[in-house]
Amino acid sequence: MQADFFAKKRRNSLAFLLALAGVTLIAIVVTEYDVAKGFTSVPDAVAWALGNFYPTQESLVKLPGIIDKLVETLLVSIAATTVGAAAALLFAILGSNTTRVNAFFGSISRGIATVFRNIDVAAWAMILLFSFGQSSLTGYFALFFGSFGFLTRSFVETIDEASSGSVEALRATGAGYFSIIFHSVIPSSMPQMISWVLFMIETNIRSATLIGLLTGSGIGFTFNLYYKSLNYDVAALVVLVIVAAILCIEAVSNYVRRVIL
Amino acid sequence: MTALLEVQSLSKQFLGSEGKALTDVNFSVSEGEFVSIIGPSGAGKSTLLRCINRMIDASSGEITFDDRNVTKLKKKELKMVRTKIGMIFQHYNLVDRLSVIENTLHGNLGKKSAIAGVLGLYSQEEKEQALRILSVLGLESLIYKRADQLSGGQKQRVGIARALIQNPRMLLCDEPIASLDPNSAKVIMDHLRDISTSMGITVLVNLHQVDVALKYSDKIIGINSGQVVFNGSPAAITKEDIQRIYGSEAEDLIFDLGGIHAS
């Protein structure tokens, strides 16, 4: 009986691996991807990048302009995340099973959040291009909608996980809805929520670069501009600046996380 | 002694489940009594306790607490009744990131207006009362500690403090010692007994440990599959009663009834 159990588990794993291999093979055939050529071209690409893609003395002149754009991108990302987080907190409180007012509003707010979450930021950017044109406002709203959806989902889970016990206890003392929110839900969930917001800020700074390509704003656009005009040295400088900024933000948010958790 | 709590033909059926969680439950509890509810897991002990303060709404039947029919109360009146009933949980249900004193003062939130409650405006008197209760429970040196830094026994004592600061008429304790080691469990049960004896607060406890129930209670209510199968004093309980409460395998239960009655 037991030997059977393990044999069955092994068969399942094997079947899964075979299926995965099959799908990969089909994909390779359909896209006419040459595996050998794919791997052998990597050294060439590296050689080209090392030969062309590095900042030079002259490119440093552009640095102040690049930094300006970078700061703009950072601020847009942070603003989109924090405003998104405020909206997400409201929807999460209404949507969480622990704190929802009733089942109807609960499913409505979770449903709205699901729609916003499942549309990617890039898709949002394209949709919003129609309304706002190529401006940083489009980027801002794309990031805002994406963060809102994702954060609502994470906040709902945080609330259910961190505070259902104490919410029950406070309800049993006869405490009112808002007292429960402010004395149980917020204190127990806040550190985890801040951690999610920091994560979202990091993610948004990365997406903002891509969104910038689409919306013609921010650091993404700057990169695109220099790259397309064959100014590889300046484009390389942009990339280095972005990498440095992301590492800084990550260090800061890791520090904050250590302190609050 | 008058009945403080009266439960009459209480039944509960959860949505989407066959069979009832509680079937025609009747009992009454006098002022100041210490009552234990025993029964196997899933017998309906927690459901019964939560029906009393309407954390769960009963399907039918009446619950009278302090001469008021709890099952018919409107939202505001229900809150008023809840302020008179303290509740203690198996997993303590404290706000882990707040201090002992803050968790204790939470017991006062039910009496506050919405604004005072949200802002956490506690009077000097309430703070002093919290300190008094915490020192009775032996927690005076820990008042600024965060709840998640306490041991299980200490957390449960904070839970008791939060219930006591309500100045309750009755305490509902849902498996208060199920997650505790024997020493902490004894400390908690001694405190609960003392609360009942010296403060005259009625205590209703769900218990897994039959020996503990027999030792501490004035009255035992035995539940099996949502029905009351025993209701009487610990001295009157027989081996057959235990079998009826816990089912046929009860013969092998790990404690000795004679030994407990003798002590």
UniProtKB/TrEMBL annotation, chain A:
UniProt superkingdom: Bacteria
- Membrane-spanning parts: 12-31, 74-94, 115-133, 177-201, 207-227, 234-256
GO cellular component assignments: plasma membrane
- Keyword Cell membrane listed? The answer is yes
Its record classes its membrane topology as:
Multi-pass membrane protein
Q: What organism does the record attribute this protein to?
A: Mesobacillus campisalis
Q: Which Gene3D superfamilies match?
A: MetI-like
**PROSITE patterns, A to Z:** ABC_TM1
Q: What is this protein called?
A: Phosphonate ABC transporter permease
From TrEMBL, chain B:
Q: Which CDD domains match?
A: ABC_PhnC_transporter
Show where the ABC transporter domain sits.
5-250
Chain coiled-coil ranges: none
Example of a GO MF term? ABC-type phosphonate transporter activity
GO CC annotations?
Answer: membrane
Which Gene3D superfamilies does this one have? P-loop containing nucleotide triphosphate hydrolases (3.40.50.300)
- Extract the Pfam families matched here: ABC_tran
Which keywords annotate this record? ATP-binding, Cell membrane, Membrane, Nucleotide-binding, Phosphonate transport, Translocase, Transport
Q: What superkingdom heads the lineage?
A: Bacteria
Secretion signal: which residues?
none
Tell me yes or no: is Cell membrane among this UniProt entry's keywords. Answer: yes
Under InterPro entries, the record lists:
AAA+_ATPase, ABC_transporter-like_ATP-bd, ABC_transporter-like_CS, ABC_transpr_PhnC, MetN_ABC_transporter-like, P-loop_NTPase
Mind telling me what this protein is named?
Answer: Phosphonate ABC transporter ATP-binding protein
